[in-house]
Amino acid sequence: MYKSQIFFWLLVSFLSGIFVASVLDIGQIFIYVGFMAALGFIGVFGYNKSFNGKFLLAGFFGIAFLFGIVRFNSANFNKNILDVFIDLKAGGKGIEVVVNGYIDNEPTDRDNRQELILRAKEVVAGNMIVAVNDRVLATTGSFPKFNYGDTVSVIGSLERPANLTDFDYIMYLKKEGIRTVMFYPTVEIDEWNAEGNDLILFEKSKVNLYKKIFLVKRNFESAVSRSISEPNAAFINGILLGSRQNIPDDLKEAFNETGTTHILAISGYNIMIISWTVLAGLIYFFKRRTAFWLSVAVIVLFVILTGASVSVARAAVMALLLLFARGYGRLYNPKNSIILAGASMVWLNPFVLVFDIGFQLSFAAVLGLMYLYPRIDNKLKKMPKLGNLKEIFLMTLSAQIAVAPLLIYYFRNFSLVSLPVNVLILPFIPAAMFTGFISGFMGMALSPLGQAAGYFAWAITAYQIEVVEFFAIIF
User: Fold this and answer.
1) C-alpha angle 402-408-411 in degrees, rounded to nearest 5
2) What dihedral do alpha carbons 129, 132, 135, 138 form, nearest 10°?
């Protein structure tokens, strides 16, 4: 085997270990025995040169596999300080504590409640004050509204999350670094002075930066809403920012029935499709390398506008690698780069491999565009190009085939009209994003300018919405 092949299979072995540990409970005895067996393989077959080198490699692959198991177990069974306060009870109920910290993500509105992810920096229980650095999910009422970076004191009891359905909610929260929850606590803003506590310089800089990002995002979203009538404005904010709360329920259902919900959600699949479509559109007007760098700028701007969350950044990395392989033309076989990026992300957060749908969709879409698209394109090389329509059609087909098993497994639904609807509306996504961005950008400066640009965005999105609603009816 070549060195690049050995490197590839070592990473595959590591990811396989993560996967097995994610779905099975692997005990320490198995790990110890496995390491001894693998080291024995390496010792015996490395010493005796007459044996086939594949046996020696099997030992190293085994170690990489076991290393993946150890990495997942260390993350899964890791305890945090807040666990101590969960076990403190009085009269059969959890003892109320004061959790001081700041809101560590953009608050999520769900019907008549808000979900706040709190970065806890200290816990006060009676006369005891304990420094911590953990995340807590707090569910509160709809009002008052909170923003990212608000320093707060949260008063209530800490609880362990529970799985109430088949959905593994506990692992979903662990993926986000959350192991404790609070239900309808008292939240007091600015009761805790973060400046006087142990917030390191990097953390303060990060909070201040993200405050500015989310402020720009809110202002941009408002400018789009002022410049374009509904539901088109909500659709624009959905494809640009991932904001879905203002999209009418009947329109959401239409997107769901036609298999186009991915357009409204900031997922790995969404970013893959958008980045590839943007590049395909730009190549039509610019040289390949110029189109590549413009596509990179679009993705970076897209990540910033959506709030630069970790999940979006992960998907963007995959998209950039794929664009580099196709648009810049220097990676003849990019599979090692893709799997290295994936393995690095899994190393940082072992839960994403099995419990992050967006991460899985990213990889599936990458594989579809990387391997299926060239084969399908070669089979249909006599098909007329019709500008870039053929490329977008085959791109959509390749990605949809790759992600179809995941969509069926997770959502128990796969629309028969998904392919034609995607083909009809995806070619216009770059234009909708561009005109929507111009409308929002100009609207932030002067409303009439935003409204003038908004007419073009409205026309494009009106066509897309009509297509989705029409196929949803006949579905």
Assistant:
1) 125
2) 0
